[in-house]
Amino acid sequence: MVVASAYTDDKPVNPIEDGDMDSLFMLPLSIIPLQTPALRQARIIKNAQLRSVIELFSDISTGSGQVEISDLPKLLAWPTDEVHPDHIIVRKLSTLHSYDVFSLRIMLRRNGVSLTDQAALQLSAEKNQELTAYMTQFTRPLIQEIYGGENVQVDKFEDVVKLFRDPDVKRAKQRLQKMADALGIEIMEVPQFLEDYGDIFLSLSYYKQCLDRLAPLLDVFIASMYDIRKNYQLRQDQNLLRSCEMIETTINELTAAITGRFENFERSTKSMWDDISAERFQKVKDLIQAYHVTIGGVLCGLTVKMNAWVRLFPKPTSGGPVKRSEFIMSDIRQGLDNITKIEDSAPMMAVLG
């Protein structure tokens, strides 16, 4: 896995890359029940203009073999007298704003797209391990509720579940009963609560990590635009200067909106534990899930844009101001308004009462 880092002297900055099921911007079509073998071996990805394309192959030496979705019938020799079922499915997938597993759970169902394996939309074990530190803030109040002042070591959320599987059956049952009493539910409903609790805060941890990894790339890009603005030749180009200002403003507004949502989620979570109940947890769960598609879409769009930038300009000395300005006016500017539309379409933010 490649981790993002900001420019240090003339050292390169790396794009954000994840495995297929951990990625914001790519989806392996093997999990979709398609009829065409060549498609089942491919991926759908977001390109730098935020258009969804089919990636047939990707290799360091050969690059990325991408095909426009509109070109698939000719490439795959589909019959011309009717629309191929696979084309219908892929076109639906192309309209999605993000391919992260949490957005996909909502949008695949909404678009009537099935899966070859209903359990496929899960983060990898590696990604789950990466998110341990993020999950700690959400597991801590849960442990406090069950154990009070007891000293309990919890390294990952699975350890919380194990606490209810104590070899001492009586002790395990007491813990389950305590949790059930706190939530106002039956003891048999506690395992489902724990599963829902872990999954909803895993989603929040995932998106928070995505934002944290994105931040250094955004800093590098903003710094590069500053260099372009002060370039003697380029500062005469008013259209370029206006575009740079618009892009910087848009990026700042989008990141501020996402950050504000995380702060709201944190307040709502803390409030939930002040008077925990199954109903209050459900409200927090609904609140967070309502923004999965928006947060995933904005983070996907920004990550794809910044990845494209650092791949082309991995060092402060890469490319030069003119080449950078050309890329800003083409790939960076194109499709940026779509990210703003995703943000603008978000439901009104609510606070847990």
Describe the structure.
The chain is mostly helical and 353 residues long. It has 3 domains: 26-97, no CATH class; 127-189, no CATH class; 204-344, no CATH class. The protein is built from 14 helices and 4 strands. It has a 4-stranded antiparallel β-sheet. Helix 6 (132-147) runs antiparallel to helix 9 (190-230), helix 9 (190-230) packs parallel to helix 11 and helix 10 (238-274) packs antiparallel against helix 11. It is globular. The model is unreliable at 1-7 (pLDDT under 50).
Helix content: 55-70%
> Which spans of ≥5 residues are poorly predicted at pLDDT below 50?
1-7
Overall pLDDT? 88
Q: Using the CA coordinates, give the radius of gyration.
A: 23 Å
| Largest β-sheet summary | 4 strands, antiparallel
> What series of H and E elements makes up the topology?
EHEEEHHHHHHHHHHHHH
Question: How far apart lie the N and C ends?
Answer: 41 Å
Provide the number of structural domains: 3
Outline: globular
**How many extended strands?**
4
Number of helices: 14
Strand order of the largest sheet: 1-2-3-4
Helix/strand-derived category reads mainly alpha
- Indicate the proportion of strand residues: 5-15%
List strands and helices in order, with pairings.
Elements: E1 26-28, H1 37-40, E2 43-46, E3 52-59, E4 63-68, H2 72-75, H3 85-94, H4 101-110, H5 125-130, H6 132-147, H7 157-162, H8 169-183, H9 190-230, H10 238-274, H11 278-289, H12 292-312, H13 321-332, H14 336-344
Antiparallel strand pairs: 1-2, 2-3, 3-4
